[in-house]
Amino acid sequence: MSHNPTTQLLRLLPLALLLAAPLAHAADAGHGAQVFAEECAECHSASPGKNKKGPSLFAVAGHVAGGVPDYVYSDAMKHSGITWTADKLDAYIAAPRKTVPGCKMKYDGLDNAGARADLIEFLNNTH
Amino acid sequence: MPTTTRFARLRPRATWPLAALLAAASVPAHALPSFARQTGDDCAACHIGAFGPQLTPHGMKFKMGGYTDSNGKNDSLPVSAMLVESWFHTKKDQPPADGPNNKALLQEASLFLAGRLGEHVGSFAQGTWSDTGRRKFTMDNVDVRYTNTLQLAGKDTVLGLSFNNNPTVTDPFNTVPAWRFPYMATEMAPGPAASPIIDGALAGQVGGLAAYGLWNDSVYAELGGYRTMGRSFLENVNVLAPGDNLDKINGVAPYWRVGYFQDLHKSAWHVGMFGFDPNLKPGGVAGPTDKYRDIGVDASYQFLGTRKHVFALNTAYIHEKRKFDASFDSTCTTPDAPCSQSGNVNRFDLSGSYHYDQTWGVTAGMFGVKGSADSGLYSGVSVLNKPDSDGYILQADWTPLGKENSWGAPWANLRLGLQYTGYTKFNGSKNNYDGTGRNASDNNTLYAFAWAAF
């Protein structure tokens, strides 16, 4: 057996990759909470019933768009027929105006796919 | 004090118009709970440190949108109130005629009509009662807007009109005279003898219409024109007392502003330029005019992150060229009249702030005024006949409320602050600047305030 440290490390590499792979892909709700604070919280609360300029995003995942009863949505959002699955959320957060044309959310979109995944994981956890 | 100086500009006349003093005194404004009630947003969404007026990009957009954004329900009343109780201590008393020392005051009690008045119309209009002034309810900052949004070259564009009474009060950035640090200051302590005229000297006396636009959330431009309001109106709203001097703008004075702005959500920055060019008829008398040409450059940066740690930097430099065609006296015999026909005064401001958890804040600022000497204009206040003044301002503040889950939200907000202003040069020199042995540092002032908004 070689005692060359480099060779030893190389031998561990597949294992490391194996461990790291799910980590890299597992959405991180903690980081998602940070992204929410950075990108969304000025307009949205994650607490139930708290509407700001945008509706509360509490338990938004899996629900029908335009579903917060005491929030006044745009017609575009109300009649979009969307159900907020992870895919739809991802598309909307990446490009709000393309996904729901005419919606009144003045947000230009979050480009970073990893940040979106973490954010959606965070939203999934609010219920 | 820089923003709220009682001597925003040494006027080429013996009588100081109370209007300029009062209006300039109450220029710094305000986190308004009526805005929070209307939008559902917390104070912290629009204001750095959860208290006005230092705006975040979200707050800037709300202002540029004409105070009309709402949570869609439109059931809140656009009315707010504000109280400022304060105390100040200047290192060495001023001559008693110039003012008291070590005094606690009800500095401001204000009412606001602030918020959405219709789909396209919004207002920020303030009336103020102050124990430091004439103890009358006075018209303060007024900014009433009409806005619309449309697509220009395929990009979102906000277009707006503002009727207002103070050049720079319309501005969204935290760098211009009406809105720069310090956001609250005492108007009782001595302040430097001069500053460019755009620095509040005409605040409250003028009425202006400005058109502005924000293109693609990035390019901001504004063009306005100001005229002096009528004396009887200014007396009715207690901006002027009978007998106060009123210099009148000849025709219309143009105000302009351009800026480039980027809101990156985690951070934001802007760079810009602005200017104001009034020609004044001293005392309103027809004939030659005193001409002021102000031009400023400014920039800002904010780090917002998750809003746990927020840093902000704001800076502006203003250059003013003056030509006293009306009031100069080359024989130098008219008291307080300029001896030179032309001159200049320049002003630099820089401040940096840090806020922790939208609650605890510290701000450090520095300012400098530099201008041409004039043995008429500055006689009596400067042995060197110069306006040059340099100093710094340190502030610590605590804003326990104003967050999403704060007690009393969105009905009440509170800030307690302690501020120290130090001068290293005052009206021309460090020591004995006025010839009676008073030093710049004798004007160093400690100021404490409790600022509440409802």
Q: How does this structure look, described?
A:
The complex is a heterodimer of chains A (127) and B (454). Chain A has 127 residues and is mainly α. Chain A has one domain: Cytochrome c-like domain (Cytochrome Bc1 Complex, Chain D, domain 2, Orthogonal Bundle). Chain A has six helices and no strands. By secondary structure, chain B is mainly β. Helix content of chain B is 7%, strand content 43%. A 16-stranded antiparallel barrel of chain B has the order 1-2-3-4-5-6-7-9-10-12-13-14-15-16-17-18.
The CATH superfamily of chain A turns out to be Cytochrome c-like domain
Please tell me the CATH architecture of chain B by its name.
Answer: Beta Barrel
What ranges of chain A have pLDDT less than 50 throughout 5 or more consecutive residues? 15-24
CATH topology-level name of chain A: Cytochrome Bc1 Complex, Chain D, domain 2
What general outline of chain B do the C-alpha atoms trace? globular
How many separate structural domains of chain B?
1
The CATH topology name of chain B reads Porin
Into how many domains do the coordinates of chain A divide?
1
Element-by-element helix/strand order of chain A: HHHHHH
Helices and strands, with pairings:
The complex is a heterodimer of chains A (127) and B (454).
Chain A: H1 5-25, H2 29-40, H3 75-78, H4 86-94, H5 96-99, H6 113-124
Chain B: H1 18-25, H2 33-39, H3 43-46, H4 57-64, E1 79-90, E2 103-116, E3 121-129, E4 138-152, E5 155-164, E6 206-215, E7 219-228, H5 231-236, E8 248-249, E9 253-263, E10 267-276, E11 279-281, E12 290-303, E13 309-324, E14 342-356, E15 360-371, E16 389-398, E17 413-425, E18 445-453
Antiparallel strand pairs in B: 1-2, 1-18, 2-3, 3-4, 4-5, 5-6, 6-7, 7-9, 8-11, 9-10, 10-12, 11-12, 12-13, 13-14, 14-15, 15-16, 16-17, 17-18
